[in-house]
């Protein structure tokens, strides 16, 4: 690539918004590959996974943060710390406000917090445009404008988007790129995320383990990877990746939910996770899952460290 710092832009953007606002889905739509775990339940994004959008004129590095929320546990506090540290470091903050929902106290709190990071430009994104009629969108955009004014934020842009239909995803990229500093690419071409593969694999396993039992186990699952190695002695064209992982639960009573009758559910979890991991890494996988109990891991600092928070 013959780009110079004069005609190339490179920098960081982060999506913020209440839980379920569509941040992860939009990140995936921009990057074009499933790297961030999306779910219909709030607060499943634990890691600031970066997706990288490579364009001829720019490199846009997306930092996906967990939702800011009133902390009730030590984990909650850590999550909020991660969010605020991220905000101070990026070149543009993109606030996601779903058109399918009224702007509420949660959004006001969040926008108020974002306003405190005064120097960073802010873009408002009206997500889930496909779910609403045009007149509702017009009303929503006016509310976003008013929210900016009452919080002391001058939006650099307000963009309606649908990450699921693809509507205006490119416009979101354009508006974010405009606000990046000039500079050389920060990552090699082709990198989609710099998150260690172990973290992504752990997230895929956690997602599979939560599938169908989210109501019973909303935030009580953590996954660690003990080992991830290519099996020795395999022919070069038939590699096999051995992955040894642990699913941590808070209480004994949760074991049955995850494991199921005679281990049937755990087998399904393993099969689903394996499929996702193979799609992500492009290598056949042998996945060994162990279910363990780490009592009250969400409130125990020692456990949190061990589990990587
Ligand atoms: N119809 C529609 N649904 C969407 C769109 N974007 C996201 N969703 C859905 O909204 C839900 C939440 O999306 P996520 O991308 O996980 O939201 P998030 O803001 O990352 O959520 P947290 O990780 O909990 O903070 C999922 O069920 C998505 O499929 C969209 O553009 N249109």
TrEMBL record:
Region listing for G5, in residue ranges: 161-163
Compartment(s) of residence: Cytoplasm; Cell membrane
Q: Where is this region: G2?
A: 43-47
All residue ranges annotated as the Era-type G domain in the record: 9-182
One term under GO cellular component: cytosol
Give the way it sits in the membrane.
Peripheral membrane protein
* Chain spans, region G3: 64-67
Molecular-function GO term, any one = GTPase activity
From what superkingdom does this record's organism come? Bacteria
Summarize where GTP binds, as residue positions: 17-24, 64-68, 127-130
User: Where in this protein does the record put region G4?
Assistant: 127-130
Give residue ranges for domain KH type-2.
213-295
CDD domains in UniProt? Era (cd04163), KH-II_Era (cd22534)
> Positions of the region G1?
17-24
GO annotation, biological process: ribosomal small subunit assembly
Give the function comment from the record: An essential GTPase that binds both GDP and GTP, with rapid nucleotide exchange. Plays a role in 16S rRNA processing and 30S ribosomal subunit biogenesis and possibly also in cell cycle regulation and energy metabolism.
Q: Which family does it belong to?
A: Belongs to the TRAFAC class TrmE-Era-EngA-EngB-Septin-like GTPase superfamily. Era GTPase family.
NCBIfam families tied to this protein: era (TIGR00436), PRK00089.1 (NF000908), small_GTP (TIGR00231)
Question: Could you give the subunit structure recorded for this chain?
Answer: Monomer.
Name-wise, this protein is GTPase Era
């Amino acid at each position: 690539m013959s780009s110079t710092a004069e005609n190339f832009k490179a920098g960081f953007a982060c999506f913020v918004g209440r839980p379920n606002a569509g941040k992860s889905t939009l990140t995936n739509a921009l990057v074009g590959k499933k790297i961030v775990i999306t779910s219909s339940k709030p607060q499943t994004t634990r890691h600031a996974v970066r997706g990288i959008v490579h364009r001829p004129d720019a490199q846009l590095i997306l930092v996906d943060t967990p939702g800011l929320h009133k902390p009730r546990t030590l984990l909650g506090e850590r999550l909020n710390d991660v969010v605020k540290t991220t905000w101070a470091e990026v070149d543009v903050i993109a606030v996601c406000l779903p058109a399918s929902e009224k702007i509420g106290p949660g959004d006001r709190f969040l926008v108020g917090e974002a306003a405190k990071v005064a120097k960073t430009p802010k873009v408002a994104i009206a997500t889930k445009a496909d779910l609403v009629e045009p007149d509702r969108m017009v009303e929503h955009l006016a509310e976003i404008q008013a929210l900016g004014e009452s919080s002391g934020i001058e939006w650099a842009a307000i963009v309606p988007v649908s990450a699921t239909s693809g509507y205006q995803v490119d416009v979101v990229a354009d508006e974010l790129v405009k606000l990046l500093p000039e500079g050389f690419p920060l990552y090699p071409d082709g990198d989609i995320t710099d998150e260690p593969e172990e973290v992504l694999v752990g997230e895929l396993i956690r997602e599979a383990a939560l599938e169908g039992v989210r109501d019973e186990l909303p935030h009580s699952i953590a996954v660690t990877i003990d080992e991830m190695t290519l099996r020795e002695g395999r022919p070069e064209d038939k590699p096999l990746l051995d992955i040894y992982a642990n699913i941590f639960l808070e209480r004994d009573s949760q074991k049955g939910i995850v494991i199921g009758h005679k281990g049937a559910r755990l087998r399904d979890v393993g099969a689903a996770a394996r499929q996702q991991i193979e799609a992500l890494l492009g290598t056949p996988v042998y996945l060994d899952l162990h279910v363990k109990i780490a009592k009250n891991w969400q409130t125990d600092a020692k456990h949190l460290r061990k589990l990587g928070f």
